[in-house]
Design goal:
Blueprint (H helix, E strand, L loop, with lengths): L3 E5 L6 H18 L3 E5 L20 H11 L3 E4 L3 H9 L4 E4 L7 H11 L5 E5 L6 H13 L4 E6 L17 H9 L5 E3 L1 H5 L5 H10 L4 E5 L17 H10 L9 H37 L7 H11 L6 H23 L1
Parallel strand pairs: 1-2, 1-8, 2-3, 3-4, 4-5, 5-6, 6-7, 7-8
Bound molecules: phosphoenolpyruvate and manganese (II) ion.
Length: 340
Amino acid sequence: MKPLLIAGPCAAESEQQLLETARQLHEIVFVHNWELAFFRAGVWKPRSNPDSFAGMGEKALPWLARVQRECGFAVCTEVMTPEQVALCERYDIHTLWIGARTGVDPIAVQQLADAVKSKPFTILVKNPMVPDVKLWAGNVERFLKANVKQVMAVHRGFADSNENVYRNAPCWNIPIDLKVQYPDLPILCDPSHLCGHTRWIPQIAQLALVYGFDGLMLECHPQPDQALSDADQQVTPRQWEEIIESLVFKNNVPNRELIKQRALLENVDTQLSELLARRFQIVDEIARIKKENNLPVVQPQQWQQVCKRYLKPGQDIQYQEFIEEFLQILHLHSIKKQQS
Ligand code: PEP
Ligand code: MN
């Protein structure tokens, strides 16, 4: 089965920008005989900085309606309040997403669920900012109970106070847990918000498919460097085409238990590589301090004490040997770096 595709700009900036994106995407999907399930564009943008572009608001809704009419795409946008739901309904926009920021507020989510109750809406529930599968599942449940046309989940990564490679931490085990709880719920991945930069998008998109995700939401802008929001993570329609073309789809039913363990391993490996990068930065600082104070690079006693702290008696001998070897490599590397 082909993944479900959603593409479009982070935000609707002008009628012309929306139509240009939609027309280019239309041509691409036509040539490849693909299907764009939804064209996305944010109209109300929840931004951290109050001076950032906050979306064009209501006046962008007729532009979205025009894309829907002229390109035949179903369009979707983010809503945070019941009033916004009513406005979308007025413009015949029946696919709405619940953003990661709204997702941390159960009262707001319930108000939205009440606003769409028993209506023919498709609701995309993004994961909340915090890595809490119960909160995400609770939000999904509110819309399932509201008896809308369809509910889907979207994994866009989680806020994390550490400095990460990605804008948001993937925590793959969380969407996979959600899938175990709701086997019939389609789960898409949004590599754009997860990565925060286009350079990681192809690999995250592919990984999501390997983990059995049902589709991909990608931000796509005709001139990403001029985008009014999320410029670093938006691809051009042509780049979008290349990414989708490069993906390998497999039809075999994934082994959920294996996938879950792999996802946990992937989380650990991501953390390990980030920790190592941070360690190297600290080593650079230490080198600078030693140099300024004329201290020797190698301080054997200090290092022996560090090793002792990590080697605990009673641990599996193979594990101990591995840790010892690993620490030696790290130490040698640090010495080389400090001497260079
Ligand atoms: C978006 O999709 O444009 C958006 C703001 O999403 P999120 O809630 O995932 O940050
Ligand atoms: Mn965005």
